[in-house]
Input
Amino acid sequence: MSRLAIFVVALALCGAAQAGGNAEAGKRKASQVCAACHGADGSKPTAPENPILAGQHPDYLAKALQDYKSGKRNNAIMKGFALSLTKQDIEDLAAWFSSQPSKLHYQR
Ligand code: HEC
Output
């Protein structure tokens, strides 16, 4: 394969991984760790300093997690959790929490 072909295939694979988190997989991951602070579906945090995640835009959630991981957004608690997440975990968790009903988004 030419270098260009490899590059194109690699790009396509990245696109596929990004294209969508799996909400069911996210739900499983969330129940193990995140639920303790943010609530099982992200709508009822267990303390006022833990933000509501349910109904937040998936891109926002994914970016927040990536930024905690990279250190661009600095929070000692969330950095610890974000560091253990893969890119796929982040997409899955973002898909799960964003699809949950909450006060954050407009209810039709
Ligand atoms: C020990 C409690 C705790 C646990 C467990 C926890 N979080 Fe958090 N989370 C927080 C706190 C506190 C903040 C607010 C941090 C800040 O001010 O940036 C936060 C912030 C966030 C934000 C940013 C929200 C926003 O509105 O900007 C996201 C996204 C997030 N958490 C996702 C997760 C995920 C996904 C997990 C599980 C892998 C998780 N959290 C586990 C306490 C926790």
In short: The domain at 21-98 is CATH 1.10.760.10 (Cytochrome Bc1 Complex; Chain D, domain 2). Helices lie at 3-19, 23-32, 35-38, 58-70, 76-83, 87-98. The mean pLDDT is 88.
